[in-house]
Amino acid sequence: MKTLPIYVLLFFACLTISLAEDSLRDWTNTEGKTITAELVDLQGDTATLRMENGRKYEVALATLSETDREYAAKWQAEKDAAASAEEKGFEIGVPTDVIVKSPFDQDTPVTRKASLAGWQAGIGQWRIEDGALIGDEVAEDNHPSSLTHRFETDNLIITAQVQLGTATQIAFACRDTVPPNNHLGRLYITPDKLWIQHMSGISKTTKAERLTTVDVDIDPDKWYDVTIEIIGDHYRATVGDEELEATHSRFADAKGIVALVNKGQGAKFKNVELWKAEPKE
């Protein structure tokens, strides 16, 4: 494919055929010359533009305006997110902006009530060891261990890998943005059951109701892929090959905190990602 300066493409802009209007836009080079074309591919520092006459040309991003470069970057990010959604089997949401990606692959000492790899250890004790985050309940806390991350979004996607180990229960908890960040909903993973529940309140005012439960046989030594999509009032989760879905008006509230929760000892987490999301069309 021949690479041409963007101003050469102006000649071809006069030869128009019908293309989808929402994919065409004006592109301006650093000399102020403008054409109408569609971005169809982006490889490194080179964009492939398709003119209205259907011809394709490669253009160096460095020759385009800052606005065009920003558009190209956003276009690629959305394309990558859509590909990731397809690969990971998301059904109701499409990730848009990453909130945090935590591989938990750098060892740390035992941490209590302090920052750990961009998260906040609040209850229990946490450490990263041999490429995994490990959460242990501490008896004196009289509460499962909890590690939190703060953000704000309307729709949320969570992906992770978990290993139950000797723990009796793992949960992915979500809280809202209303001070003091009331409970919103949770996915629970136990040796024999998975369930989704909606929640409200906080501490002694907490109210919860199981919405759907699935009987399972979780191998405590096996790593399981977990995906959670909270899109509008719809909550969808997969753990390994098992799928759960539930709806509740509470799930549509804005999300402000995600907590990784462990009851007992030895639960492990790795490759935890939180994403802002949009409903899947």
Describe what you observe in this structure.
With 281 residues, this protein is mainly beta. The protein folds into 2 domains: 6-88, SH3 type barrels, CATH 2.30.30; 93-279, Exo-inulinase, domain 1 (Jelly Rolls, Sandwich), CATH 2.60.120.560. The chain is 10% helix and 51% strand. It contains 2 helices and 20 strands. Strands 5, 8, 9, 11, 16, 17, 18 and 20 form an 8-stranded antiparallel β-sheet that branches. The chain has an 8-stranded antiparallel β-sheet with strand order 6-7-10-19-12-13-14-15, with no helix packed on it. A 4-stranded antiparallel β-sheet has the order 1-2-3-4. Strand 14 (193-200) and strand 15 (207-215) form a beta hairpin. The longest helix is centred in the N-terminal third of the chain and has 23 residues, at 66-88. The chain is elongated, with a radius of gyration of 24 Å. The relative contact order is 0.17. Mean pLDDT is 90; it is low at 1-5 and 7-21.
What secondary-structure arrangement, pairings included, does this model have?
Layout: H1 10-13, E1 25-28, E2 34-43, E3 46-51, E4 56-60, H2 66-88, E5 93-102, E6 114-116, E7 119-123, E8 125-129, E9 132-136, E10 145-153, E11 156-163, E12 169-176, E13 183-189, E14 193-200, E15 207-215, E16 224-231, E17 234-239, E18 242-247, E19 255-263, E20 267-279
Antiparallel strand pairs: 1-2, 2-3, 3-4, 5-20, 6-7, 7-10, 8-9, 9-20, 10-19, 11-16, 11-20, 12-13, 12-19, 13-14, 14-15, 16-17, 17-18
